UniProtKB/TrEMBL annotation:
Any Pfam family hit: MPAB_Lcp_cat
Domain ER-bound oxygenase mpaB/mpaB'/Rubber oxygenase catalytic residues, every copy: 45-270
Transmembrane segment boundaries: none
Region (Disordered) residue spans: 1-29
Official protein name in the record: Uncharacterized protein (DUF2236 family)
Source species of the chain: Actinomadura namibiensis
InterPro entries assigned to the protein according to its UniProt record, in alphabetical order: MPAB/Lcp_cat_dom (IPR018713)
Length: 308
């Protein structure tokens, strides 16, 4: 039985305030990119590709394979994941508590693969990889599905906010890349040298157009056409938003025609989403948080303008 640890990405800066080798995270609020973007349904369009990249990591794939509920309850697992992600950004101080809760929940999780290697969910590399694939997905959405070009300044802010999010999730500081260039060097190296065509990744792709197993038997024939159509579209977007190296490892084809189709779909979604009402555009937690923030601002303005 073996267990390996990763090489740190960066050394902590002596000029940055830290506690126990970790910079203190700050909750997100109005004005941040993640506050404006991560709560939109459109932001989840590359979420499946992030999960595929995660499950291609040998440690993550093994733990998910042995211990996750993704087979028995895929819809419930997805809903819980989305709720947790929304809490990271829109939860205020509750976001910090959610980061601690996730660490505690994953602390006992470990599993042994077929080669006798034991993998722990909280090992530094896989825990960081889960978070950093989220940045890859957010960057992909910003580049491919946003109606506005991703400017260097917005790219910088998105990166910095995601590194702060990593601290909320208690990713070790040494595993957070210092610059955008460092991230892409690390990401490309992980895709080329660490990721494998894990059976979990292949199984998730295969199940996308299938009716979830939790659907009652009497409803399955009714939902089968919807699952087939929606699942094929989801699989198409997932494959298209994976990096080419990951597609190659999974044996997935992607043609020039496919790329043109994805670009057309991205254009339609990117132009349509901003036109939708906020209640429809944002997920429930994000929508309520944005409402509450506006109400709080109006309350503060009323107090500031009261006669004295």
């Amino acid at each position: 039985m073996t267990l390996t640890e990763p090489t740190p990405l960066t050394a902590p800066s002596p000029h940055v305030p830290e506690r126990d080798g970790r910079r203190e995270p700050e909750p997100f609020g109005p004005g941040s990119i993640l506050w404006d973007d991560l709560g939109m349904y459109l932001s989840a369009v590359a979420g499946n590709s992030a999960f595929i990249l995660q499950s291609m990591h040998p440690a993550i794939g093994t733990v998910v394979d042995r211990l996750s509920s993704f087979r028995a309850d895929p819809v419930g697992r997805a809903l819980r994941s989305f709720a947790s992600v929304q809490t990271w950004v829109y939860g205020g101080q509750e976001a910090i508590a959610e980061g601690r809760r996730l660490r505690e929940m994953h602390k006992p999780l470990s599993a042994e693969d077929e080669n006798g290697t034991r993998h722990h969910a909280l090992s530094a590399e896989p825990w960081a990889w889960v978070h950093l694939t989220g940045y890859y997905a957010a960057d992909t959405v910003a580049r491919r599905f946003s109606p506005e070009p991703l400017t260097p300044e917005r790219e910088r802010r998105l990166f910095e906010e995601f590194m702060n999010l990593g601290r909320i999730l208690q990713v070790p500081e040494r595993m957070l890349p210092a610059t955008i260039a460092d991230f892409w060097t690390y990401f490309d190296r992980m895709v080329a040298d660490t990721l494998v065509p894990h059976r979990v990744a292949l199984e998730v792709l295969d199940r996308m157009d299938k009716v979830p197993p939790t659907v009652p038997a009497r409803l399955r024939p009714l939902l089968a056409p919807l699952s087939l159509t929606g699942g094929r579209l989801a699989r198409f977007v997932t494959v298209g938003t994976l990096p080419p190296g990951a597609r190659d490892k999974l044996g997935l084809s992607w043609t020039a025609r496919d790329e043109r189709g994805l670009r057309a779909l991205a254009t339609v979604l990117g132009r349509t989403a901003p036109l939708l009402p906020e209640r429809v555009r944002y997920m429930p937690i994000a929508y309520r948080a944005r409402q509450a923030a506006r109400a709080h601002r109006r309350w503060q303005e009323a107090l500031a303008g009261r006669p004295l």
